[in-house]
Design a protein that fits this description.
signal, single chain, 152 residues, alpha+beta
């Protein structure tokens, strides 16, 4: 199945990591920074990266991930999301797993969303809580967050 998807992407002209490397102008600048900082990322489109082993995804503000079900703003059901702008706007970095998650230093978090049905997520600097988003909720982040802690 993965081979078929890869073949479809190549045949339809959707940028792959290899084609993006050949044409660096096609890659969103923030996506390029994240690819350098966080190993294992797979470029799906110029502004869309997934890290399968981290259950993490990045979508640039001008991009679209094709996600359909939404729970909190543009944060898909069951995920924890960080945004580069206040009020759930800007580029999105999201996770499907829960725990203590490092935020890449090139990603400035200004708001978070918790699209889970229980628990809460905290944007933190070290162990200092900057903002808390409860189940099906969101919060703006004031300060420099370097991790998100999710509690079920």
């Amino acid at each position: 199945m993965a081979t078929l998807v890869g073949l479809v992407l190549v045949l339809t002209g959707v940028p792959t990591a290899a084609s993006a490397a050949a044409n660096p102008d096609a890659v969103d600048p923030q996506a390029a920074q994240l690819l350098e900082e966080v190993p294992g990322g797979e470029l799906v489109a110029p502004g869309h990266i997934v890290w399968p082993e981290l259950d993490m995804e990045f979508v640039a503000a001008s991009g679209s991930s094709g996600l359909s079900a939404r729970s909190v703003g543009s944060c898909s059901t069951g995920r924890i999301c960080a945004y580069t702008a206040y009020n759930l706007s800007g580029s999105i970095l999201s996770w499907g797993s829960c725990g203590s998650i490092a935020i890449p230093s090139t990603f400035v978090t200004r708001s978070i969303a918790n699209a889970r049905t229980s628990g809460y997520a905290q944007a933190r600097n070290g162990s200092t809580v900057l903002a808390t988003a409860y189940a099906n909720g969101s919060a703006n982040v004031y300060g420099s967050a370097n991790n998100i802690r999710c509690y079920l």
